Amino acid sequence: MSKILVTGGTGYIGSHTVVELFNAGYTPVIVDNLSNSNIEILNQIERIIGVRPEFHQFDLCDENKTREFIQSQPEISGLIHFAASKAVGESVADPLKYYYNNFFSLINLLNAYRETPINFVFSSSCTVYGEPDTLPVTESAPVKKATSPYGNTKQIAEEILAETATAYNNYNIIALRYFNPVGAHSSALIGELPNGVPQNLLPFITQTAIGKRERLTVFGSDYDTPDGSCIRDYIHVVDLAKAHVAAIKLLEKGNPNGKYDVFNVGTGNGYSVLEAIAAFEKASGQKLNYTFGPRREGDIIKVWGDVSKSSTQLNWSAELGIDEMMSSAWAWEKYLEENPII
């Protein structure tokens, strides 16, 4: 079985991708510094797949450690790079943290593979499109000036990857531009596990419903949308994880589009914040306590993706809808209430 390195593999998307890689016949190897995840997730992954994944704890911003690790793992044929700081609001408040962590980790990995062929899947974001001119947004849409340092790191990282793939022969790279991952594994053993106050909508919804938070704040009620709240393309995290497996498979057989390519990964449907709240209330039977607050700096008004390229060329499509997203997230929150991991 091919070994696939998963950086940030104990994180939210990383842990689900480790499971789906194993299900597809790969051997995942995890590197994580646990700065925004919990070592207990390894136990949870083991409960799902029946084996404990190989795990290494260190910071990819350490150039020497990264190079030594890569040299010690010649069996690795693919790399899925999740490890990065990822909260829009925090990036506005602390941009240097984001530029340091997100660029040094990426560059160190690329340098470590300068002499070794590698299939590289990068965790990018629909934030590279900024506020799109037309919807749904396609991969050929212009990359606009980022609205946050987080978004800027994704834009610049894509430029680094594209230029690296052009300059050197040994890199085959796909950047997956995610929309908004939500939900949890059907076992309710892994899901989104934010440290401290959640930065994303759905864990704040579930924590409010379970009683961990007094109320949910909806940031902005006067946007140019049907109900005044922001619109996003929400995608189930298991579907997103399977997209990474599809990307690895495409790189293994040879991507006809060349050595660097990008794909949108979403459902192609947009839901407003208020529609997401209503969907959660329907799926869970819980009435949410929420209030409206001011707009949040860095937020896009509305974005959802054209995912036809992923369907036809990546051979991947989302299968799980908004009901499964909400019910699985609620099942995970209830599991955490009874089995506190942190």
Automatic annotation (TrEMBL):
Keywords: Carbohydrate metabolism, Galactose metabolism, Isomerase, NAD
InterPro entries: Epimerase_deHydtase (IPR001509), NAD(P)-bd_dom_sf (IPR036291), UDP_G4E (IPR005886)
Origin superkingdom: Bacteria
Cofactor(s) listed in the protein's UniProt record: NAD(+)
Residue ranges of every copy of the NAD-dependent epimerase/dehydratase domain listed in the record: 4-266
Pathway participation: Carbohydrate metabolism; galactose metabolism
Reactions listed under catalytic activity: UDP-alpha-D-glucose = UDP-alpha-D-galactose
Binding partners and assembly: Homodimer.
Family annotation (PANTHER family): UDP-GLUCOSE 4-EPIMERASE (PTHR43725)
Protein name, per record: UDP-glucose 4-epimerase
Gene symbol of the encoding locus: galE
